[in-house]
Recover the amino acids of this structure.
């Protein structure tokens, strides 16, 4: 009755894996993986080194969360709460980027700024 | 266990409102995770801002990241992972009913590794940045070799100092928590039935480790460390 006791061997294994992944991510930073060209405005150039580095970081994060933080052995409720945190982070990042990256898509020639004087009287009227 | 609760013969640390120790443990971890979700969003705002400015000024951010010392960054990542291991082992020592001296040893080791991280960061990295005029607001000098991207390199360093600074602040708070835990362990407060303060503090410490796991590639590695063919 003392919760799930993770064997020391598991902790040491995860520790070694995390160190190996740190060495790997540092090592591959010295190799040029080139770039991916999407042809979409501000995200036209995607350096593949960044993709590789963040994928390794994601694996390291999962190892820490699942084993060091015992989420693998926690209840479904805890697992849902953990995932909710990352879901809301994804919403924050994706919606902000969706706004920022599509600023240039305005039908107005000068962007939304030129539309502002037209709606200003309306805003003032509301206040 | 629930029978024991009904008859009022509790294990130490058991609170009346819970069905049994297992439920109490689960509630404790869940509560800590709810706090950590707010921490994800707290750092998340900074990460989201970083992502946008990196998208807008990619070249400047890559120039900036190559100016950091990747050896210190990698070494500090290893140090922090080591401190996460000793933290996990401190909890394990309590869970497995080991002597208090073992819990205290692992907690002290965690603090030593945490202190080593901050020592390397402040005394070597930040000091070198100061001497190389890379701290915005403290005589930052824009170098001609950065070219057109140069004006936005200080922006990258604002992110660097703010993100690593906020992370360091979390670690300093962690020292306070670890110090308290060490005293509690010394007073024999933890056993195989009750170790909730260790468990939830461990969650906090591992979370701070995870933040660094992402800061390392985002700040040190995004520019790559290879020789660029014909760029600049």
């Amino acid at each position: 009755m003392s919760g799930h006791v993770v064997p020391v061997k598991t902790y040491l294994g995860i520790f070694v894996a995390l160190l190996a992944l740190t060495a790997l991510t540092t090592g591959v930073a010295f190799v040029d993986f080139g770039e991916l060209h999407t042809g979409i405005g501000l995200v036209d150039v995607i350096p593949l080194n960044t993709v590789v580095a963040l994928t390794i970081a994601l694996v390291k994060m999962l190892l820490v969360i699942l084993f060091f933080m015992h989420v693998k052995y926690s209840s479904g409720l805890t697992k849902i709460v953990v995932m909710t945190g990352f879901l809301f982070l994804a919403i924050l990042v994706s919606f902000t980027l969706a706004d920022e990256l599509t600023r240039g898509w305005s039908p107005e020639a000068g962007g939304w700024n030129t539309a502002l004087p037209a709606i200003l009287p309306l805003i003032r009227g509301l206040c | 266990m629930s029978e024991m609760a009904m008859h009022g013969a509790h294990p130490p640390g058991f609170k009346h409102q819970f069905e049994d120790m297992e439920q109490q443990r689960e509630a404790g971890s869940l509560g800590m995770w709810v706090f950590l979700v707010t921490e994800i969003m707290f750092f998340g705002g900074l990460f989201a801002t970083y992502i946008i400015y990196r998208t807008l000024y990619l070249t400047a951010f890559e120039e900036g990241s190559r100016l950091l010392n990747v050896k210190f960054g990698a070494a500090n990542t290893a140090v922090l992972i080591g401190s996460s291991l000793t933290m996990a082992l401190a909890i394990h020592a309590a869970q497995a009913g080991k002597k208090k001296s073992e819990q205290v040893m692992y907690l002290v080791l965690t603090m030593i590794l945490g202190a080593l991280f901050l020592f390397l960061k402040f005394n070597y990295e930040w000091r070198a940045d100061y001497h190389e005029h890379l701290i915005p607001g403290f005589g930052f000098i824009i170098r001609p070799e950065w070219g057109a991207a140069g004006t936005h390199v200080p922006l990258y360093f604002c992110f660097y100092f703010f993100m690593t600074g906020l992370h360091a602040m979390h670690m300093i708070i962690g020292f306070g928590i670890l110090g308290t835990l060490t005293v509690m362990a010394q007073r024999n407060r933890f056993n195989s039935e009750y170790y909730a303060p260790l468990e939830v503090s461990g969650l906090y410490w591992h979370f701070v480790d995870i933040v660094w796991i992402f800061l390392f590639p985002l700040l040190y590695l995004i520019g790559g460390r290879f020789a660029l063919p014909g760029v600049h």
